[in-house]
């Protein structure tokens, strides 16, 4: 009888191990896209847009206030381009610091573009908070094209664009816009 109970216990333990392994493999398959190079759990921060990436010319866009806006001409002066999402909690958490950066940097409102993806209801938060410091442009064909051609995959993404229309610096943290974690500040206040 003891042998029978031992065999039964061994079978139950084996089934439990098999079930645990099946669950672990399923979870791994679900998480694999998140832990690939540069993703969560790799010990590395996701990278911003690579330096030198050109901002595509998309012509005139309409901001959330109905005004016609265009990216600055290649005039030799830096400007800011950010990508945020209405469903991104990190974007919302960083909004006060991003706004503070813009207020203290001295960059003119016409040289700051906050492209917001997501539902229309969520855009009002960005429109209200950034009204005085940035042009806020909601999802649309032009925004989708910029996101696609610049390879943006992480929200938020904050980019400094050089006077030639290329990315000079790009990060996922508004705190890093000032260059606090880099040897020299990437944003020159003019």
Distance between the termini: 87 Å
Element pattern in H and E: HEEEHEHEHEE
Report the uncertain regions: 31-40, 180-185
- Overall form: elongated
Mean pLDDT: 83
Give the proportion of residues in helices: 25-40%
What's the gyration radius in Å?
A: 23 Å
* Number of distinct helices: 4
Structural description of this entry:
It is a single chain. The relative contact order is 0.18. Helix content is 38%, strand content 16%. The chain is elongated and about 90 Å long. The chain is built from four helices and seven strands, in the order αβββαβαβαββ. It is α/β, with parallel strands linked by helices and 190 residues long. The strands form two sheets. A five-stranded mixed sheet has the order 5-4-3-6-7, sandwiched between helices. The protein has a two-stranded antiparallel sheet with strand order 1-2. A hairpin with a 5-residue loop joins strand 6 (157-161) and strand 7 (167-171). The termini are far apart.
